[in-house]
Amino acid sequence: MNKPVIVALDVDNSEKLQKILDKLGKPDETTIKVGMELFYHTGSELVKKLSDQGYNIFLDLKLHDIPNTVYNGAKQLARLGITYTTVHALGGSQMIHAAKEGLIAGTPVGKTVPKLLAVTELTSISDEVLKNEQNCSLPMNEQVVSLAQTAKKAGADGVICSPLEVRELREKVGDDFLYVTPGIRPKENSSDDQSRIATPSQAKEFGSSAIVVGRPITLASDPQAAYEAIKKEFN
Ligand SMILES: O=c1ccn([C@@H]2O[C@H](COP(=O)(O)O)[C@@H](O)[C@H]2O)c(=O)[nH]1
User: Which Pfam families match (predicted)?
Assistant: First the structure.
């Protein structure tokens, strides 16, 4: 089976959303990511609607709060028919565990519990920012491994990381864990807010379980051709 290319639908209205969805093919073969922009604009009703249409939904709200608040938030998200959701691993093991428990408690009987992915270091964070702004004494790869180990012990199903870290993560954290990787740029010399980037074929070579791609598809002159090319390169 093909590994998912998750399309990040970072748009601010339903018309733009529909235009992109029309290019992506059958809902039950498509995984879409609803992030802050779309969710804050349209709310949970849209997520339920997309789920009812058959899309696999990655709801990426990156919860990060005290464990009790995250438990109750995750419990609400589990009612929306989503496949994946996210927390920040930096929230700590108790918070990650609370998110998982909230998802279990909120999932309707007979439905599958959404997979919990913990964001390690955002793919926009560079080595310099990690050291000089986060004052982290570990190099990026060790910091990401450490956060992934914490997330796994706390009950997460996987992590969000850069493809550049997946090989080491598979060795040190295991293959029984999901490595979902944004920071995908089809051209190696891209320069934008992403920092730890890789091409779809590098992500495949390094062992990403799934890739998350936004602007290289949504801003392409032909989004359908861009999506198909990325799927081909990753699988
Ligand atoms: O570390 C992270 C965590 C999440 N993201 C999200 O992925 C997409 C990437 O979009 P592009 O347009 O391909 O850069 C975006 O929705 C982010 O919120 C991430 O990039 N890095």
Answer: OMPdecase (PF00215)
**222 in catalytic set:** no
Structure token digits, residue 46: 């849209």
**Four-way CATH pick for 5-234: 3.40.50.12780, 2.160.10.10, 3.20.20.70, 3.40.50.300:** 3.20.20.70
**Domain residue ranges in the chain:** 5-234
Distance CA 131, CA 97 (A): 28
How many angstroms does the Cα of residue 212 sit away from the middle of ligand 1?
Answer: 7
Distance (Å, whole) CA 168 – CA 179: 11
The residue whose C-alpha atom lies closest to atom 21 belonging to ligand 1 is 123
Sign of CA dihedral 64, 93, 6, 30: negative
Alpha carbons 175 and 217: distance in angstroms, whole number: 29
Q: Is the ipTM of this complex over 0.90?
A: yes
pTM for the whole thing?
0.97
Distance (Å, whole) CA 225 – CA 131: 39
Q: Ligand 1 in contact with 210 (CB < 6 A)?
A: no
For the Cβ of 122 lying below 6 angstroms from any atom of ligand 1, the answer is: yes
